[in-house]
Structures are given as C-alpha cells and as structure tokens.
C-alpha cells in the first residue's frame, strides 16, 4: 500500500482479522468523528462492547444504545444507564483530545431557509417529507 505522509497520524489498526475471522477485542473502543453537516448532524461516536454513545455536536446531546438488544438504535438508554453514558463520554472526550479532533464553529451567515437549496440527501428524504426520528435531534 501507499506510505503515509510524515504529518499523518496513524491511530488505528487493521480490521482484516475482524472481517475475515470474526476475531476482535470486545473491550476495545472504536471511535468516529464527523464534525460536519452532510449526511446528518455533526457528531462523535464511541462504541465499546455492546454499547454505543452518540454525541451530537450542534446541541451537545447524547444518546446511549445497547446494540445487543437494540441494533436499530431506537431506544435511548442514557437516563436508564447514566454511569455507562458518562464512562463512554469520558472515553470519547479523551480520544478527541488525543487526536486533536476539530469541531464545527458557528457560521454567522448561516441561513436555515437555504439549508436544502441544493437538495436533500437521499438518507433524509422519502417522497416529499423529511424523515425525522425522535432519537435524532
């Protein structure tokens, strides 16, 4: 494969063993950070074991799911399991600090009326109505 530029931070490891043989460390946390409006609202996520925490960056809301019981992420468990939500959020914040994650900044010229001027992503569109989940602020 290609070599990484000197300035590129490599903070991961190969997922080939997981995908080919199903071998993985269930206690290893996986993180992703998407700080832009594109497919959805800006968010950071951590998954550890059966638990997944989503932190929406635009309004600082957090949602906790147990994927073993709720693969569709329909029931927010953050109030029922505040200690788990806090634990995962601490991990997420430490990871974001460690990798120097960038965050969205307010755009003083943002005009909500023009947000979908170039169209609506298919993920968010069904016919003429926007899909809106109570779990996705």
Walkthrough of the structure:
It is a single chain. The chain has two helices and six strands; from the N terminus they run αββββαββ. It is α+β, with helices and mostly antiparallel strands. The strands form two sheets. Strands 1-2-3-4 form a four-stranded antiparallel β-sheet, covered by helices on one side. Strands 5-6 form a two-stranded antiparallel ribbon. Strand 3 and strand 4 form a beta hairpin. It starts with 15 loop residues before the first helix and ends in a 7-residue tail after the last strand.
Please describe the structure with a list of short key phrases separated by commas or semicolons.
single chain, 137 residues, alpha+beta, four-stranded antiparallel beta sheet, two-stranded antiparallel sheet, 6 strands, 17% helix, 20% strand, disordered C terminus
Give a brief description.
The chain has 2 helices and 6 strands.
Rg from Cα: 17 Å
SS-based structural class?
alpha+beta
**N-to-C order of helices and strands:** HEEEEHEE
Tertiary shape: globular
Low-confidence stretches: 125-136
* Helix coverage percent: 10-25%
Count of separate DSSP helical elements: 2
N/C terminus separation? 40 Å
Please, what is the average pLDDT? 83
Q: How many individual β-strands?
A: 6
Question: What is the makeup of the main sheet?
Answer: 4 strands, antiparallel
Report the sheet-strand fraction: 15-25%
Strand order of the largest sheet: 1-2-3-4
Secondary-structure blueprint:
Blueprint: H1 16-21, E1 30-34, E2 43-48, E3 51-56, E4 61-66, H2 82-98, E5 125-126, E6 129-130
Antiparallel strand pairs: 1-2, 2-3, 3-4, 5-6
